[in-house]
TrEMBL record:
Protein name as it appears in the record: Short-chain dehydrogenase
InterPro entries listed in its UniProt record: NAD(P)-bd_dom_sf, Sc_DH/Rdtase_CS, SDR_fam
GO annotation, cellular component aspect: membrane
MF terms in GO: oxidoreductase activity
Amino acid sequence: MNIKGKTILITGGGSGIGLEAAKQFLDLGARVIITGRNQQKLDAAKKLYPKLTAIKSDVGNAADAESLFEQVNASGGIDILYNNAAVLVAPSNLGIANDKHAERAAYEMEVNYVGVIRLNNLFLGTLQSRKEAAIINTTSILSEAPSLIEATYSSSKTALAFYTVSLREHLKIIGSNVKVFELIPPLVATEMTADRNDKKISVEDMVKGLINGLQKDQQTIRVGDAKIFNVINRLFPKIGFSILNPKKSHELLRS
């Protein structure tokens, strides 16, 4: 897929992976629109990269999604929708069998899964009108094996992974030209993972892996250790599970 000249909308684009993606897409000659909930982060991103268009919006809010769609379409629409935004409620030693977890689960699913479907449905008509267009859904290695302390995040990404396959095949059946990519990153060095001491990939390398996959039209783009983990988990699922759930996570649940 060619990036130059494309208009790309990145959710969660005010910092971390989204902001780095904006930078690298701009460097390749794309027009980039970022959106996010934090106006200060959006303002800082705009100051850093003046060519950006920044629109405040919460992907987990239906009214915000509608407003975002209207603003983006009024300015010419997009060629690529990059669903990058996601939330991870801080792990808790309460585990998953309690009422508080249900509240956190509803929030995570709304943003990580329902919000993606909502935006895809809103923008699909515009995307289908383009000569070359794409949707990028970001899942996780946690969609292949769950984390005990991040159970709903894992579940939301698993739901998104299955939805992504279904959407891709649905669009093929109806003869749509919209490409559907699944990005599967490993643990990435962002604010979300700042308190983790595990091995992480940099946002720069993560985005480079994404762009390389897009340019090669790889439907499933595994970056860094996500490639190795996929092989291990398929051949030795118990080992895959133990990699994502080391003894320290068991100790957290027991504490």
